[in-house]
Specification:
mainly alpha; single chain
Length: 176
């Protein structure tokens, strides 16, 4: 009987170091998982913001087409192939600004190309914009791209819009 009491007194009381380390490991894995979810959420929010900005730029281009219905001039225009420098001022025609200022259709096309390209380059990472013929569809497209994509990569050869997961494009078809 005396031996049995000694064994009871020698039993461990409280939490051991191994249990604390295991608990810390489980906690660390949980914190890393939470941090990964935060990064994923931030990336998703940034992509949503870029898509919203691109859609607004494309809508602005459509409204400019309504003011100046010379669609062939927009398609033939020399749309920039490199993004505008961030923070730079857009090129302007003095005759196209101000109250009562007159401006020809060609000047208006050039003004719109400069303004839209400037907005795409300053509101989107590596943003570009173009109005082009959509292949094999008989339609025209307002294309806004970002993150290194070119507007020409946004519409596939068959006329279908590039919807791949690595596609950074907003395309609005124009029927005129």
């Amino acid at each position: 009987m005396l031996l049995k009491k000694m064994v009871v007194k020698a039993a461990q009381r409280g939490v051991g170091l191994v249990e604390v380390l295991v608990a810390l490991l489980v906690l660390a894995i949980g914190v890393l998982g939470y941090a990964g979810m935060q990064l994923s959420a931030l990336k998703g929010a940034e992509q949503a913001n870029n898509r919203a900005q691109a859609t607004l730029i494309a809508q602005d281009a459509l409204e400019r087409l309504q003011v100046n219905p010379n669609l062939p001039a927009y398609i033939a225009a020399a749309w920039p192939t490199t993004p505008a420098a961030v923070g730079s001022a857009p090129n302007a025609y003095a005759t196209c600004t101000g109250v009562g200022a007159g401006c020809s259709s060609a000047q208006m096309v050039s003004w719109d190309v400069n303004q839209l390209s400037w907005m795409a380059g300053n509101l989107l990472p590596e943003g570009l914009v173009a109005i082009q013929s959509c292949p094999n569809s008989g339609l025209n497209c307002v294309v806004v791209s970002w993150d290194g994509m070119k507007p020409s990569e946004c519409v596939k050869a068959g006329g279908e819009v590039n919807t791949d997961t690595d596609s950074f494009c907003a395309v609005i078809e124009v029927l005129r």
